[in-house]
Write a structure and sequence with these properties.
mainly beta, six-stranded mixed beta sheet, 420 residues, 3% helix, eight-stranded mixed beta sheet
Length: 420
């Protein structure tokens, strides 16, 4: 039998109503002896997009599918409802779908029906896409939950140390809830499912013909950038696990892993304008090489403020001989466990030396280190926040990195919120 899906692959749709209080008031806890039937509406919260100007990932539809859902309600420490919804609960006929979703919309909506006692002062917990290949959580494990603290402290860890996903994204949400005897639902906030993953997208372009001049002992050297040939990229300090429901602190006990170097996924070209060191604008057509990945949240505090200087974010520790250290603390300002990219390639440039008659073409092997984070916040009106090394769940980080020389890259950040 052909099945039709609501919100890509969803469950039940029923005729009932729910409401949300603008400010959910603290209520005394009460659980009735009588059961009632209630409808819950939920959406998925689209990735918050963070565009950072410095194809293992999927599109919006697979990232938003809900294949199954575990719902649990506590009133105080008493569990009054727990149920696992799966394929058996899906609608068989598209005509049964109430208010079908617009496939082009950023927000999709689903409904589930629950049968529980009427109560006040409850908390509802929802977890979707359980038993994904990437995380070690299952309906059987969830059924062992007996207290609210069990759910609040519930963790999930990656089964494989990789940065791709199979289109099965665990999502979660919790909020206050009351269910009246007539089935009316009052929520502390609308149920808007949030993915545990962050999504990182990176594109690298070249400020072609950018000139850098240095003068030493009366000799001026001018380097003119011609090309960047990408070799590989890898990610360092990826968390192995996370709390299922977001907390102020991360699940650091899970540990970290790093990926092996791999080649870039995409290649194209782009017209863009950059400013040289003298403030003059240049418009060029540049090759653009890119890659993308998923990762669990990793929020780390800077060792010290970089005082508004972006390049200090990635400053490395040197030993007494001026060599970069390979053991112990490696970063001057960045947290040792912060997630960063390691990008390798070859820079091609022409070099003019004032004391020599000939222009030379040289190449140099380069490695760029770029710590992740949102270092310009939309919440602060675009003000620089260069001490930020946080990678948040349910967030897209879109990095565009402009190479301007062997040791110079430029990174800009803009942040925008999309509707959930």
């Amino acid at each position: 039998m052909t099945r039709f899906f609501h919100i890509a692959a969803l469950f039940l749709v029923f005729l009932a109503v729910s409401c949300v209080q603008e400010e959910f008031q603290e209520k005394s806890e009460f659980v009735s002896d009588e059961e009632t039937v209630a409808l819950l509406e939920f959406t998925h919260s689209d990735f918050e997009r963070i565009n950072i100007s410095t194809k293992a990932t999927l599109g919006l539809v697979p990232e938003s599918r809900v294949q199954n859902m575990f719902v649990c309600i506590f009133v105080g420490d008493k569990r009054v409802y727990a149920h696992y919804f799966d394929a058996a609960n899906k609608l068989d006929d598209k005509d049964q779908v109430l208010e079908p979703n617009d496939p082009s919309a950023q927000e999709t909506t689903g409904h589930i029906m629950i049968k529980s006692p009427a109560f006040t002062g409850g908390t509802i917990y929802l977890i979707t896409n359980i038993d994904a290949d990437m995380v070690n959580i299952s309906p059987e494990k969830l059924n062992t939950v007996r207290t609210r603290s069990d759910l609040d402290d519930l963790t999930a860890s990656l089964n494989q140390e990789i940065t791709s996903r199979n289109g099965y994204f665990p999502m979660s949400y919790k909020t206050a809830i009351d269910i009246a005897a007539d089935g009316t639902v009052t929520l502390g906030s609308p149920i808007s499912l949030q993915r545990m993953d962050a999504k990182v997208m990176v594109n690298i372009r070249v400020a072609t013909d950018n000139e850098l001049e240095t003068t030493e002992d009366g000799v001026t050297t001018k380097q003119t950038l011609k090309e960047f040939i990408p070799e590989s990229w890898r990610v360092v300090n990826l968390p192995k696990g996370a709390y299922v429901f977001g907390k102020d602190a991360d699940y650091n006990e899970s540990g970290y892993f790093s990926t092996e170097p791999v080649v870039f996924e995409t290649k194209g070209s782009q017209n863009f304008t950059y400013k040289d060191n003298k403030g003059v604008s240049h418009t060029v057509n540049s090759p653009v090489n890119g890659f993308s990945l998923y990762m669990l949240e990793n929020r780390e505090d800077a060792k010290a403020s970089v005082a508004g200087d972006y390049h200090l974010r990635n400053k490395r520790v040197k030993d007494a001989d001026g060599e970069y250290v390979k053991t112990g603390d490696k970063w001057v300002y960045a947290p040792e466990d912060a997630t960063y990219l390691e990008i390798k390639g070859e820079v091609i440039m022409t070099v003019d030396v004032s004391s020599e008659a000939k222009q030379q073409q040289l190449s140099a092997a380069v490695t760029y280190y770029i710590h992740l984070g949102d270092f310009i916040h939309s919440e602060t009106g675009g003000v620089d926040a260069k001490d930020n090394y946080d990678v948040d769940r349910n967030t897209i980080y879109n990095y565009t990195i402009t190479i301007k020389g062997v040791s110079e890259i430029e990174t800009e950040v803009t942040t925008s919120n999309l509707p959930g």
